[in-house]
Amino acid sequence: MGYPFRRWLWRAVGVKLGRNVRLETQVAILGTKLSIGADSYVTRRCYFDLTGQVSIGERVTVGHGTSFITAQHAIGPAEKRCGVVKPLPISVGDGVWIGANVTILPGVSIGAGAVVAAGSVVTESVTEDTLVGGVPAKLIRRL
Predict the structure, then answer these.
(1) Per-residue pLDDT tens listing for the chain (143 residues)
(2) Around 85, how many Cα atoms within 13 Å sit in the side-chain half-sphere?
(3) Measured between alpha carbons, how far is 123 from 136 in angstroms, rounded to an integer?
(4) pTM score, two decimals?
(5) E strand or H helix at 6, and its extent?
(6) Is 134 in a helix, a strand, or coil?
(7) How far apart are CA 33 and CA 80, in angstroms?
(8) Which residues are catalytic?
(9) What gap in Å lies between CA 88 and CA 7, rounded to an integer?
(10) Residue 9 DSSP label
(11) DSSP-based three-state secondary structure for 105
């Protein structure tokens, strides 16, 4: 399946995709609360939990194996610790580069022009034009 067919298929079920968005194979999109801006590229084995909204800007590159998690759970009582789900959105600004195997957690915003190093776990919002990395992701330097 080529890019045009995958774009058509995802748009048909309600995902909002800008022009020339490239979605590789093996991308799991669970829900329809996803918008991806023009000229963005999502590589293989990415995972989108769309309990909450995920908004990705234009000219964004997402490395393989990246997960966008929008479901946050309250801590429940002793008999069942995984409590009620609270969806929180994720926002990614224009021109961002997200490396391979990154996990982005609920409520995070990644500012325009930022770079997230491979293998990072993003637990807090990222300022524009910065390089972050690690577990949890921390500022490495300004760009």
Answers:
(1) 677 888 888 888 889 999 999 999 899 999 999 999 999 999 999 999 999 999 999 999 999 999 999 999 999 999 999 999 999 999 999 999 999 999 999 999 999 999 999 999 999 999 999 999 999 999 999 99
(2) 9
(3) 6
(4) 0.94
(5) helix 3-12
(6) coil
(7) 28
(8) 73
(9) 25
(10) H
(11) coil
CA distances from 137 to 33, 58, 59 (A): 25, 23, 22
Q: Is the dihedral of CA 36, 132, 111, 129 positive or negative?
A: negative
For residue 26, which amino acid is it? Q
Residue at token pair 């590159």: 61
Here the tokens at position 77 are 């009582």
Pair of tokens at residue 22: 């490239």
What is the number of residues in the chain?
Answer: 143
Among candidates 68, 37, 63, 39, which has minimal Cα distance to 53?
Answer: 68
